[in-house]
Protein 1
Amino acid sequence: MDDLIAKLKAALGPAGVLEGEEAAAKAQGGWSKLGVPRAVLRPASTEEVSKVLKLCHAAGEGVVPWGGKTGLVEGGEADGHLALSLERMNKIEEIDVAGGTATVQAGCVLQTVCEAVEAKGALFPLDLGARGSATIGGNISTNAGGNRVIRYGMARDLVLGLEAVLADGTVMTSMNHLIKNNAGYDLKQLFIGSEGTLGVVTRAVLRLRPKPMSQDTAFVAVEEFGQLSKFLRHMERALGGTLSAFEVMWEDFYKLVTTEPAKGKAPLAYGHPYYVLVESMGGDQEADSARFEAALMAALEAGEVSDAIIAKNQAERDQMWSLRDDVAQVARNWPIFTFDVSLKIADMESYIAEVREGLKAKWPAHTLMVFGHLGDGNLHVIPGTISDHSPESRKAVEAVVYGALRKRGGSVSAEHGIGLEKRPYLGWSRSPEEVALMRVLKQALDPKNILNPGKVLEPASPRVKAAE
Amino acid sequence: MDDLIAKLKAALGPAGVLEGEEAAAKAQGGWSKLGVPRAVLRPASTEEVSKVLKLCHAAGEGVVPWGGKTGLVEGGEADGHLALSLERMNKIEEIDVAGGTATVQAGCVLQTVCEAVEAKGALFPLDLGARGSATIGGNISTNAGGNRVIRYGMARDLVLGLEAVLADGTVMTSMNHLIKNNAGYDLKQLFIGSEGTLGVVTRAVLRLRPKPMSQDTAFVAVEEFGQLSKFLRHMERALGGTLSAFEVMWEDFYKLVTTEPAKGKAPLAYGHPYYVLVESMGGDQEADSARFEAALMAALEAGEVSDAIIAKNQAERDQMWSLRDDVAQVARNWPIFTFDVSLKIADMESYIAEVREGLKAKWPAHTLMVFGHLGDGNLHVIPGTISDHSPESRKAVEAVVYGALRKRGGSVSAEHGIGLEKRPYLGWSRSPEEVALMRVLKQALDPKNILNPGKVLEPASPRVKAAE
């Protein structure tokens, strides 16, 4: 390793390799376990990333790619390994509003890109809580989702082209700018959502959308789960393609984020089982507001919704969103465990009931916070007031949360990825044939297993054992 | 081969293997060269597809998957080979409107699926000229595009899950129903758009959308190319997400489809360089029509558009679309050669000018029909009245059409795929590193090269030589 580090220093210069306390400091502040890396490599260009991988490939040494370190599944865990940070590759290379593209380096922070695009009069629609520190490279590597998937899709749908450095240092530049391009295999798909295990994303061409000219936001109360999906389908139809958010909060979560010490105020009375933040983005404020109001009125009359309030201005809109975003409140129920799952909407009610029963049996005093992007089939499920935060407790909670999910054909990861944390449960959502094919890809693209080794798929000698 | 055919007959039964004249008859009516297959295999289930591939894998014999045989790039060419037709696998297994999915076998005809979904009150938005015979399996394998990509995306964006049989007969079932699923690699992407070279798609879960409640269609005239993209961006913004078609016709094409023997009537006077069919699909007919009209008026006032007519009823709408769809008229300029390219909108004007110059130099009497999905950067370019239809003429025309494209970083295939026909030009749109990575995938998934051998990528001993 020392010999390799000397070579890396020669290749990247002094600013390019951090060790000791400097490396440890870079591992602070991550949202999930990062460990203490042996060194943090900070290449300043694609060529330097290529040099790093060539050297590591020759030495058979693994590298753990780092973006904004906001991942939630230990996908950046680099204890004793080399971390490969893209933080110095943060140039916005071009914003082409007429062409509808932004070309950026992977280390660009999401919010910085969104703001630069907006300043030019367009929209890059990816939006998620970690926007202020998550990077485009991380968004792509994890196929990030967020608040507007229902309208604009996930990160996968927002990338036209990308550049990735392969395990052996080959630079695979596939910076497509075209919406339609069927000239051979769509290689970018390999690197989107594979969590840095098949290549290191260094640059990307992002697809921009027209900046919406209108925004309408409401907060509504719903009495029965069955009405939630009726209300969703009604709004999709009535708003004709402009529905941009459909965020559901179970009552417990709603209460949590509207009671002290939370700063949020309750826009609607308590006592309803479900609350929905619904939003539309369109082309004409006056006409769209009228349509939005009419659609809500129709839902009230049809009994899909029992109460509703429309944001009259940006401040009220911000207030509504601040409730949805104040996920930090869940820590009040410490010890907590957080989950990100997806399943058919039709299965959600019985799923949550079964999880609640399962938790109750072991932890009578448990809490259960549920909220999520219902329109995408994605729920965040956060059991709390569990006896302790030990790995054993986690495993017991996982048995309840994932056990009920497995029966229903749900996914153990809707938008967070697998990383290390969910690896034991990959086989609960994917068949042996699927996992075998993933291994074929990993073997073909990274035969020495140096790219984020051990993440997503178990290595030959597993550090984390698969769940039964 | 005879021994293999005997085994295939035992596995599939008498209806499952056609030979001789029966096989030759099945190869009639294709839209591009199919050749005369040694036999046509007609499995009736995924298990039978698996048996076929197991036997062919063991024998090292190639198979050429067939859907509706409407491909345009010789992707189904099977001369002397085994064709694998999915025509008996045409069951619609489930349409779940509340869940927003349709589960179908690969041999289902696109139009049949669309109609069945519509009858249940939802929309499967894929729409293209070959809808009456193209199959879902073919649509997926070629990542089909068509008329509504600007609103709903290509086939890739409309597939949630699929089942594919791998080269060795392994059934890889990945019938995901969820919009968000980041549990490991997104394996379906391997089989979408890879033209049957990495696996045979047998079933799919399609994503449905709400049935639009409104439709507004107009035909407009535009005086300058630069105004076209301004008009496009204006309509995208003003219609707030409901723009569903933006089909441009150059004047020559417009004249061709509105003069006898064509049956189409000209909705606007001749004498404008560009005509656009623009359409919106929304949620409220009255409000959407008002918005559509207002957006067109604004475009007229801004000078983006010089004349416009709005369809007052379905008959007028059908008339407008019939012009766009009457591509068969181009045969009046025989000998013709057809191309499907994509490039940045900003490059299109100079591109067409250069193609025109290049053709003129060699064929002073040439015609040039241009039309396409401008919003997607996709043009169909059809030179006609070329001296003869020989391979040499084709090559000379390709040199002009692809030569001008290559300089501009365009794609030799926007939506039709590569097949055999475009294989020599793959390297004109893709870098050596990209093609090398495609080969890595092909080698990993089909090491014996039995899946649609020779399509997309050159085999070791090429039948078609790459262009220089």
Protein 2
Amino acid sequence: MPECITSRENGKIKYACRLAASAGARRAEGAFLAEGYKLCRDLAQHCPPRMLFYTEAALQKHPQLAGMPCPQYLVAEHVAQKLADTQAGQGVFAVLEMPRPPAGLLRPGGRYLALERVQDPGNLGALLRSAAAFGYTAALLSPGCADPFAPKTLRAGMGAAGVIPALPTEDLPAALAALAAQGVACLAAALQGSRPLDELAGPWPGGLCIVIGSEGQGLSQKAIAACTASVRIPMAGGIESLNAGVAGGVLLWHFRAGGQQAARG
Amino acid sequence: MPECITSRENGKIKYACRLAASAGARRAEGAFLAEGYKLCRDLAQHCPPRMLFYTEAALQKHPQLAGMPCPQYLVAEHVAQKLADTQAGQGVFAVLEMPRPPAGLLRPGGRYLALERVQDPGNLGALLRSAAAFGYTAALLSPGCADPFAPKTLRAGMGAAGVIPALPTEDLPAALAALAAQGVACLAAALQGSRPLDELAGPWPGGLCIVIGSEGQGLSQKAIAACTASVRIPMAGGIESLNAGVAGGVLLWHFRAGGQQAARG
């Protein structure tokens, strides 16, 4: 039987809570806390688990937990409640190592998603999930984006954080200019001077980077200026905008590797 | 100056709250309550307004409100709080007539979205918004879907409820079979026996209906059986699913009228 933790003041519990609460603690430790059986299981395929916490009820429901290759701790219900980010917690928590992005990720021919000040963790998670699902190489995050390893982002991303490297950049326009100098076409999701996405012809042998801003503010002028072109999703019926996650999903799908159609415009 | 309402027990306020709270009241009255300046303004282009409520602060911010062609009422802040669905209300509310779907909507050559038990009003609103943005003809809703005129759905749909007719159906599989009998291809978003969407070749001269189930449960066997084919969004990297709104948006974009590419499979 694994060691049992019955105190909310236990050092390991406090450590896990710090990882959940603070991006700085996550950076310093190179680790993060995930919650929920499915999410922990999926992330553990890419991020080595360091510690696993579960309630007795959760272990009965998911006996496979006992096989996870890391130290395990049985926690009392009131301890699980302290670890949980949501009311309806599932009683499963893992401390996992942040994946280390491989070198040479930013290269000609890749598919990238660049995000500027996407503050909402739900939107960030949904965008990372779409980019991972459509085979993108990596995501670039400007300062002011939500943290990809915050509990809410992890939940919305459903494991995407383990699949697609999310690289923080100090200066997104400079990073876009560097990509463009390598021959990667950077497409800004912006109305100003834009073309409908189905008029932008592929294929893009040099690679592509889709650049998306926050739902409220859109992209900065600097980011737009660093891009190769601006692109919009054509809309009918007086609808002015789409849900941010939906708009990003449509762009990422449309410009996925191998998915380019000939221009129709 | 418009009449001023200072009591939360005022008959018109109670009427408006009933419309916000009850799908039955909306059906009986053929009217619904919308909240927020932009949403009320956009909806009023398609749904005749019957009554407008606003606070003095809201009128100062949006003096155009005074020009809306219906009876207007100034409401005290505490009355506005009773009408508001969210904490951060904007102090603008309109009772609007439900749009009456034109006859002959379901016809060969149209583009349709059919939803089965999409209970979450946020998901329903996002799906209607995508369908309206991509020029779909109408939406069909099975029993158990959220109400398209509930406050949360209206907010997520951002005016889509005024643009795209949402038709309740008592028996969705039967409605799909009737569409299919008219030559409309019905595509079920389901894994079972499915083909990747970019292998399904257009054009679809007989029209198309995209059929989507709830995020948790997916489509019923009956709905799948009534469809022409099943379609999936191909995914990479071990990602098993997309956010429901994102998946619907990608399908609706891919199969929009005029948007079909040749099969690549």
Protein 3
Amino acid sequence: MAGVAVLHGACMIVLAVDCMGGDHGVKVTLPACQRFLERYPDARLLLVGQAEALAGFAHERARVVPATEVVAMDDAVEVALRKKKDSSMRVAIQQVKDGAAQAAVSAGNTGALMAIARYLLKTLEGIERPAIATQLPNAKGAATTVLDLGANVDCTAEHLLQFAVMGSALVSVLKNDGQPTVGLLNIGEEAIKGSDEIKRAGELLRAAAGSGDLNFIGNVEGNDIFKGAADIVVCDGFVGNVALKTSEGLASMIVGFLKEEFSRGIFTKFAAIVAYPVLKALQRRMDHRRYNGAALLGLRGLVFKSHGSADAVAFEQALRRAYDAASNQLLDRVRERIAHAAPLLADSAPTPLAQPLPA
Amino acid sequence: MAGVAVLHGACMIVLAVDCMGGDHGVKVTLPACQRFLERYPDARLLLVGQAEALAGFAHERARVVPATEVVAMDDAVEVALRKKKDSSMRVAIQQVKDGAAQAAVSAGNTGALMAIARYLLKTLEGIERPAIATQLPNAKGAATTVLDLGANVDCTAEHLLQFAVMGSALVSVLKNDGQPTVGLLNIGEEAIKGSDEIKRAGELLRAAAGSGDLNFIGNVEGNDIFKGAADIVVCDGFVGNVALKTSEGLASMIVGFLKEEFSRGIFTKFAAIVAYPVLKALQRRMDHRRYNGAALLGLRGLVFKSHGSADAVAFEQALRRAYDAASNQLLDRVRERIAHAAPLLADSAPTPLAQPLPA
């Protein structure tokens, strides 16, 4: 990773962008890159994709890295990993592995991104499974970091402990808070609640708190995510994905309902005009684009995932997150934190579920 | 159940109410009972609880059934089941078992309610585990029925199939629609997504659709609950509980945010007055009290669970749901539907997870 060190010495952050990924490809990624470059004068971008698609873009701090293939949103992981070896997604991650970029960003197929990232970059020592972490707004006006969000559908207690350690590292970097609070997502606050695996996770997390590796506050429930009861909420990927998407569905329903009600008649249309600043503030606060850009944690390199349906505003947000993580040495911080918790992670014996991805 | 038949012949619906349950006990349950009796002239109530707490209530269609004990919200299931044999919760369910009431309603501790209901009433033939089903508003202006919501934290594919059959019976009664649509909650629409258990559940549900027992439309995601993509969404109790509580948390955050923004200054206070009808409509549509009253399905008797923190409006809603279910012969409909699907349920072999509750 000598390349990264040199770049960092020169105060430049280099991001590799999978320009072909997502539902909209270059129509979204290129305008986002343009705006990002304007805002961050110390950033460079490696635009990865098919040369003809990227031909129209020119910026002194951007360079095209050609890749002939594209991972489709519905490609099976196996196809993305084995058949499309020159995909824009893979070449972008390869830039991180080679030290040409400090982080990669893609709006492509989550499963493929995770598999390729894991195959090329490998997991950090002590981590069996990478996790996807994102931030959601909370009632305290801050953000709650939730992980995992879909990378792992069956998690053991040991995985949940690893997620807690990685999430703590992420938040301590982003919030500059040494001991962010961690909650275990459960269906009741009492330690006796939940499945056997969740109860065991609670024991491991309490042990980690006892040894000073985590600021574990106990079980939290679904409503605590938006209440902001903990800085970090840990759960398996199935549960996290459902919680996230259910929230998106509810938010859309509310927005749709407000639009419908405010356009019902002349009086309500007038009301909408009067209430516009408040509605605008609500929309801004609820705007999931502001929270776009999930971190793939636990890898030997930084990779960020944008929502597949992201528009340019949202994709730019994912670029910013990658930039923040890279400029704050997220990777080193995660590594340090894991090294510190190593005895604990080693104590927690591997289980039958802990199988590596095919690689 | 001769008592029920006679009562039904006389067009009376009798509900047994656990008046002591919930966070607020009689302060909430009695006013709710009063209003309910006023609205439903063909209903009778058995008010179960400590005689002194119920002494102030008098109505010609209400009768006190004394119970000396109360299940506390934090009582362990074991304590509620074995130590408090004269609890208001248990005596209320006993009324259903004895045929003195067609349904029981309680705002008490969910785990205790499920355990006692299961112990006293037993599960229906073909059902290994009862489930908790509730309705959530959707963008189509209708309701999505979700189950399970917390009764079962580890579910096999067979349990999910049973939930689908029971949920279909519930919705076909409530909506008078013979073939409501069923979706399997997953983290992607493709059949290859999710854990092995979820994939196997998908296979069982497809087989059930093939034999005409279910109108299964495939996998749905979290956002589809509020979109209204399926009439019934089936999931394990852990996932369902998290999805429900996460939604409650988000809804509270939005309401809190609107209050904060509208009270920020003189102009926004004016805006709030102008926008009042719309905000009122939003509040009404989002009001979780309107959706209070979850059905415990799969038992040989009707039991409804109110939110523990319910106020009188919400608790009355739970009474209404129990009334609707009883007057529409929900129990017979569920039983018929299960009998029809019996060959299918029998085909799906029991698995190691399928352990009965201690009884």
